[in-house]
Amino acid sequence: MKLQGPLSIALSLCLAAPATILAADKKKPAAPAPTEAAPAAKSLTLPETVAVVDGTEIKKEELEKAFANLLAARKMSPDAIPAEQRLQGYHMVLDEIIIDKILAKKSADTKVTDDEVNAQWERIKGNFGSEAELKKQVEAAGETLDKVKKGLRDRLAEEHWIDSQVKDKVNVTDAEAEDFYKKHPEAFKTPEEVRASHILVKVDKDAKPEVVEEKKKAAQAIADRVKKGEDFGKLATELSEDPSAKENKGDLDFFRKEAMVPEFSNAAFAMKKGEISDPVRSDFGFHVIKVTDRKDAETVTLEKAKPQLLAFLKNQKKQAAVEEVIKGVRDKAEVKINLPEPPAAAAAPAPAAGAITAPAK
Length: 361
Hints:
It is built from twelve helices and nine strands. The chain is an alpha+beta fold. About 30% of the residues are buried.
């Protein structure tokens, strides 16, 4: 279970650009988007102490830094946001900081091993290619590696504490999996798929008839060479005008019929495995297509789907249980917020439960 919030901002926000470092079970605050014709930012003065949580003060500097880093990760500036929207954003980020403060106290005695921290640290370094690049990003966020590592240890402690609170609430039975399977049959159907490679000879949409005919002849000559036994991938690398052909040798991997332009899909799905097409015209030009594999449409059986389905349902229960625990500790905490309330029209909506995608088929 992963948590994400303003705690260890350099790690969870500024450093999240190359890859997601900590996935969110707990809803991450969304930055307020500026309107298309946003008025000039008005002055917004925050109190020195923006909130007090169980006797612990949260200073405006901490809130402003968390908010600025959140926006920086989205390439936005606080000054570009109207004061009302900025105040709404401050409230959202402050609520996350409050929750982090509460969880930090709850998890203060939770043990985290050095091996756990080192494993997470190595994974994070891998997202940046090297520790030097990671250090560069961390320092650009105004932090240090030691501080980020400390934040990582604290975050793992919070995760462990949350896990201890929800562990008895996330069991899923085979009967629950079977019930979900029966009630959501469409989630377990996969359409027909084709794997194909192509060689593209480009033709402009407004090309003159004689140019179109010339391009078609060039594509047909390529098709004839393939049909006589020349290597399709080699010819695709040498002759295809699809820029990706240099890397993938023309291979498009598996795709569903609706994923490609109709002319291409209709031709590919009508072909047998191993068959080579004559030139097929689309808006891009002429394609020489080779079908390399096919997958028939099917309905995934309950037996085959069950491992992923059980994991999916367990995650559903876990997210609900985590939200319940967090709401419980938040409600019991003594919290005083000193920020002015945002205007009613700009009030932040109540956070909704995280969306769940259906299990992969």
